[in-house]
């Protein structure tokens, strides 16, 4: 969940860093080790799927999230990155020669909005006049909070949005009474669900929204095309493995995410079985144009993206396996 600050800076810095001499043994995955989006890369590393595809990946550039995560990804100068589509689109619209090359997480099903067990809030309609947490301005969690209010038949002004700075901080703020409702994503939800009560699940109330995408630049596309293709194939294998072997995948995730095996297994099982209007959480890489356009509209509602964005001109499917090359 990345906060977009200065689009023009992102455009220049991201394009510059990714177009320099990249270290083929590293990839960039926003929020790896923290958020659920990057879990397939942990499995790909542990199961040797990168090696099986003929490449060496011995490191993942990341950070705890927000602007720091993005800056670290930019500084890495890698040929393949996984980031929030709003960041990519904003940068492209400022002139960066970036390409969206895979659609990795197709929904926001990791999100649950929760309250304390003794809270008087029983349904979404009860959030009127209440304090609802979000991480940072222009973050996905802020946009989703507004969508949740609308789903409840309310105006965004009918709730008080409270910035918490992070999801863990949001959980703490809920416990102290600073907020009444907190967004709790996986794997945080698996860790604390016994101490909370869910009032809404994103998979049940929100449409499919493209969550993170794979990106590269024109230079890296020309220089590191086979590496990029191999990363996409390895990640696809990892997603298939997670679906077939959720508990073993959970144990792998536990090591990389510093979680207990029980928590990681719960999070993986939840997300591999999740369907949002029939759309899975972790995708194969195939582009879901409708979900991508929805997320762009969400970012535009926050002012993170200005003007009309023609996403069809930003997508390059040449690196996808042939059977998933055609966008949905």
Give a quick rundown of the structure.
By secondary structure, the chain is an alpha/beta fold.
Q: Could you explain how this protein is built, in words?
A:
With 328 residues, this protein is an alpha/beta fold. The protein has helices at 7-18, 39-46, 49-52, 66-76, 85-93, 140-151, 167-176, 188-192, 202-205, 218-223, 225-244, 246-257, 261-272, 289-301; strands at residues 26-29, 59-61, 81-83, 98-105, 111-115, 131-134, 160-163, 182-185, 197-201, 212-217, 275-276, 279-280, 282-285. Helices cover 42% and strands 16% of the residues. It has a six-stranded mixed beta sheet with strand order 2-1-3-10-4-13. A three-stranded antiparallel beta sheet has the order 8-5-9. Helix 1 packs across helix 5 and helix 2 (39-46) packs across helix 12 (246-257). It is globular, with a radius of gyration of 19 Å.
The CATH homologous superfamily of the largest domain: Periplasmic binding protein-like II
Query: What's the order of the H and E elements?
Result: HEHHEHEHEEEHEHEHEHEHHHHEEEH
What low-confidence regions span 5 or more consecutive residues with pLDDT below 50? 1-24, 65-70
Number of helices: 14
Strand content: 15-25%
């Amino acid at each position: 969940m990345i906060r977009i600050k200065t689009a023009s800076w992102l455009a220049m810095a991201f394009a510059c860093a990714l177009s320099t001499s990249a270290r083929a043994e590293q990839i960039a995955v926003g929020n790896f080790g923290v958020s659920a989006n990057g879990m397939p890369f942990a499995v790909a590393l542990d199961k040797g799927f990168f090696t099986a595809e003929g490449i060496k990946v011995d490191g993942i550039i990341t950070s705890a999230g927000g602007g720091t995560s993005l800056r670290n990804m930019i500084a890495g100068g890698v040929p393949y990155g996984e980031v929030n589509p709003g960041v990519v689109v904003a940068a492209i619209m400022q002139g960066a020669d970036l390409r969206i090359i895979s659609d990795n997480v197709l929904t926001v099903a990791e999100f649950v909005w929760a309250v304390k067990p003794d809270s008087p809030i029983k349904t979404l309609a009860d959030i009127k006049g209440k304090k609802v947490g979000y991480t940072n301005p222009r973050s996905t969690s802020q946009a989703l909070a507004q969508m949740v209010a609308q789903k409840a038949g309310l105006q965004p002004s009918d709730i008080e949005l409270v910035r918490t700075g992070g999801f863990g901080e949001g959980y703490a703020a809920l416990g102290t009474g600073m907020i009444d409702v907190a967004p709790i994503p996986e794997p945080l939800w698996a860790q604390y669900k016994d101490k909370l009560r869910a009032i809404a699940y994103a998979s049940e109330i929100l449409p499919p929204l493209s969550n993170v995408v794979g990106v590269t630049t024109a230079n890296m596309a020309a220089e590191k095309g086979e590496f990029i293709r191999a990363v996409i194939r390895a990640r696809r294998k990892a997603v298939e493995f997670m679906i077939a072997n959720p508990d073993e995948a959970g144990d792998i995730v536990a090591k990389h995410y510093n979680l207990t095996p029980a928590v990681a297994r719960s999070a993986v099982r939840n997300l591999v079985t999740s369907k949002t209007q029939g759309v899975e959480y972790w995708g194969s890489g195939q582009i879901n144009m409708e979900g991508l356009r929805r997320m762009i509209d969400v970012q535009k509602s926050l002012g993170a993206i200005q003007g009309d964005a023609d996403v069809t001109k930003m997508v390059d499917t040449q690196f996808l396996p042939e059977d998933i090359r055609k966008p949905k």
